[in-house]
Write a structure and sequence with these properties.
Length: 179
């Protein structure tokens, strides 16, 4: 990730964390690269299934409240967060629909879901290539599925997308609960 940050991912991380307020949950926070980027005045929570990653995250963001949990089973009450952030996570969870159901449950009714995800290509030949490499890619990268249609999953899980920015196979999304 350090290399990816140096070649531009830091700009996407800056977008992802800007403008959030209140209680913020970052799912799949990993080693905490985003955690120090949140604006002052926010109460930041991070959830990740890896204790090793959370230990590193605690060094990067000592004020963050870190919890060992998967996106599919969050230990928070309904409506606990004003913003939930997902950064390159839904490609590797075991069940994107279960994770999105949990995110919807933990998000306040007026809250927003901010996402930076790589997704299935809209170009047919690239999508086929993603399908072809997916089995090996998933094994090599620790569970990443490069061919998931995350944007469609978000819409199908009771969210309305309010902001969408596409850059090849990356999507930046801001979504809210559908009425």
């Amino acid at each position: 990730m350090a290399v990816a940050d140096r070649v531009g991912l830091w700009k996407l991380r800056a977008w992802l964390t800007s403008g959030v307020a209140g209680r913020v949950l970052e799912i799949g926070c990993g080693t905490g690269r985003n955690l120090p980027r949140y604006p002052g005045g926010t109460r930041v929570f991070g959830a990740d299934p890896s204790l090793d990653a959370l230990r590193r995250a605690a060094r990067r963001a000592p004020a963050a409240i870190l919890v060992c949990a998967s996106a599919e089973a969050l230990p928070f009450r309904r409506g606990s967060f004003d913003t939930i952030v997902s950064s390159l996570v839904l490609c590797s969870v075991s069940s994107p629909s279960a994770a999105l159901t949990e995110l919807r449950r933990a998000l306040a009714d007026t809250g927003s879901l901010r996402m930076l995800e790589h997704v299935r290509s809209e170009e047919r030949w690239r999508a086929r290539w993603q399908d072809f490499i997916q089995p090996l890619w998933t094994r090599v990268t620790g569970g990443c599925h490069p061919n998931r249609d995350t944007e469609m999953s978000v819409r199908g899980s009771g969210f309305r997308i309010h902001e969408r920015r596409a850059n090849r196979n990356f999507r930046r999304l801001v979504a809210r609960k559908a009425a």
